[in-house]
UniProtKB/TrEMBL annotation:
SUPFAM superfamilies: Homeodomain-like (SSF46689), P-loop containing nucleoside triphosphate hydrolases (SSF52540), PYP-like sensor domain (PAS domain) (SSF55785). One of its GO terms (molecular function) is sequence-specific DNA binding. It comes from the Bacteria. The lineage of its organism: Bacteria, Pseudomonadati, Pseudomonadota, Gammaproteobacteria, Methylococcales. GO terms for biological process: regulation of DNA-templated transcription. InterPro entries: AAA+_ATPase, AAA_lid_NorR, Homeodomain-like_sf, HTH_Fis, P-loop_NTPase, PAS-like_dom_sf, Sigma_54_int, Sigma_54_int_dom_ATP-bd_2. Pfam families: AAA_lid_14, HTH_8, Sigma54_activat. This is Fis family transcriptional regulator. Residues 121-349 form the Sigma-54 factor interaction domain. Keywords: ATP-binding, DNA-binding, Nucleotide-binding, Transcription, Transcription regulation. Gene3D superfamilies: 1.10.8.60, Homeodomain-like, P-loop containing nucleotide triphosphate hydrolases, PAS domain. The keyword 4Fe-4S does not apply.
Length: 433
């Protein structure tokens, strides 16, 4: 269900990546289990430490001043060695008392060479096997890949798979979240900036294009890239050259592009919202990512995989009883694999002695009404009116927040305890833009 606010504990373990919560005094309030495992530190050692060595001018301070979320490549937090770089996403959060915090996820931009230890794509169905072999073909082709699929189907995972299976596997896989890079951030994040290029540019910084040299640049949600920024991307892709903001020297970077979107880009081109030349440049190797409801044969292996993962995290064993399994199999999964993972996470938390019964299984309200209705018709037609009204309920709730915060997305997202990126998608799906 929608939450107006959060408790720190409830939020911590909803992130698979290392996740940190920082307060307005720029001190670490909490880190999650993934943090402990990734950096080999006890969470109690982190709490109370300053976020950064120079917290006078860090990104965290800036967020508390501007309430603007951020995404980009930055150094670590707390005791994480400063020389390590991460793909970082930060956003404002409000707790149940209305106190403002900052939440930040850190994803390593480069995995250790040698055996790949990243997330695994699970599946055995015919649809999944076809999909995986298409990805393998794409990986070796070196052509730009466009991954098309609903939210939560595993596009980011597929992009990383393409990179790991390609001749560029030993170089970096760099993620660009196009929903967060608005007009003002796009150029400096993608191409970097020189010292003094703008207020706050205290030191020169490499852009994501430069960091991905020799590797793969993953442009996630490319359909959300502002039209005004599209020519700049096209130019860099065609020439392989770019300038840092405030710089005069032309730089070169050899990157392989993989993109993903849940939007119909061809329709966007027709409507004049996406450049046709960029569309053709990026869509050389299009790949459809299958929806979970079209590969339900994979549910048992995916369920085992996630329960084992959760068990490892919690130091216990979880198992489903048969009624719970039937309930999961009958559902349409409009939010795909992400929704399955979240559903199991809640179910495991509610389980008694590790046994997940039918009563522990709860489904979220759908984000995408048409997908939900389609999924429900395929599975349990009698639930359709209920799902419709839930979507309406969600739209009503968001509308009330739009009025309350006069359309300020940062504050609405913070009150809903979701990222601005997720809010942006909800607004689009519910036609509230
Ligand atoms: N085949 C799979 N096996 C195991 N886990 C998977 C698989 N596909 C996706 N996941 C997991 O599901 C979650 C959602 O995947 P991912 O973020 O790649 O989806 P996405 O399509 O990029 O979503 P969005 O469009 O919302 O960005 C992640 O936790 C991912 O690890």
């Amino acid at each position: 269900m929608l939450q107006n606010a959060f408790t720190l504990e409830s939020l911590l373990e909803t992130h698979d990546l290392p996740f940190v919560i920082i307060n307005a005094d720029l001190r670490i309030v909490a880190v999650n289990r993934a943090w402990e495992l990734s950096f080999g530190v006890d969470r109690q050692q982190q709490v109370g430490r300053p976020c950064c060595a120079d917290s006078g001018r860090c990104r965290h301070r800036q967020l508390f001043q501007s309430l603007e979320g951020y995404a980009g490549v930055h150094g670590g937090v707390g005791t994480v060695p400063p020389e390590l770089s991460f793909n970082v996403r930060g956003f404002p959060l409000l707790d149940a008392d209305g106190t403002l915090y900052l939440g930040e996820t850190l994803a390593p931009i480069s995995k250790p060479t040698g055996a790949y230890s990243g997330p695994t794509m699970i599946g055995q169905s015919a649809a999944f096997t076809r999909f995986k072999s298409t990805l393998l073909q794409a990986a070796v082709s070196q052509a730009p890949v466009m991954l098309l699929g609903e939210t939560g189907t595993g596009k980011e995972l597929a992009a990383e798979f393409v990179h790991r299976q390609s001749p560029r596997a030993d170089a970096d896989f760099v993620i660009v979240d196009c929903t967060i890079l608005g007009e003002d951030l796009f150029e400096s994040e993608l191409f970097g900036h020189e010292k003094g290029a703008f207020t706050g540019a205290a030191v020169a910084k490499k852009g994501l294009f430069e960091l991905a040299n020799g590797g793969t640049l993953f442009l996630d949600e490319i359909g959300d890239l502002p039209l005004s920024q599209q020519p700049k991307l096209l130019r860099a892709l065609e020439s392989g050259q770019f300038r840092r903001v405030g710089g005069t020297t032309m730089l070169k970077s050899d990157v392989r592009i993989v993109c993903a979107t849940h939007r119909n880009l061809a329709d966007m081109v027709k409507a004049g919202r996406f450049r046709e030349d960029l569309f053709y440049r990026l869509s050389v190797f299009p790949v459809d990512v299958p929806r979970l409801r079209d590969r339900k044969q994979d549910l048992p292996v995916l369920i085992d995989f996630f329960l084992e993962q959760l068990g490892g995290r919690d130091g216990r064993t979880y198992r489903l009883n048969q009624q719970a399994l039937i309930k999961l199999l009958q559902y349409g999964w409009p939010g795909n694999i992400r929704e399955l993972r979240n559903c199991l996470q809640l179910a495991a938390g509610l389980s008694q002695n590790g046994v997940v019964s039918e009563a522990c299984v709860h489904f979220m309200q759908p984000l995408n009404q048409s997908a939900a209705v389609e999924a429900t018709v395929a599975a349990t037609p009698e639930r359709k009116p209920c799902l419709n009204s839930l979507a309406e309920l969600e739209a009503d709730f968001i509308n009330s927040l739009i009025v309350k915060y006069q359309g300020n997305r940062k504050l609405i997202a913070a009150e809903m305890n979701i990222s601005e990126r997720t809010l942006y998608r909800k607004l689009n799906r519910l036609n509230l833009n």
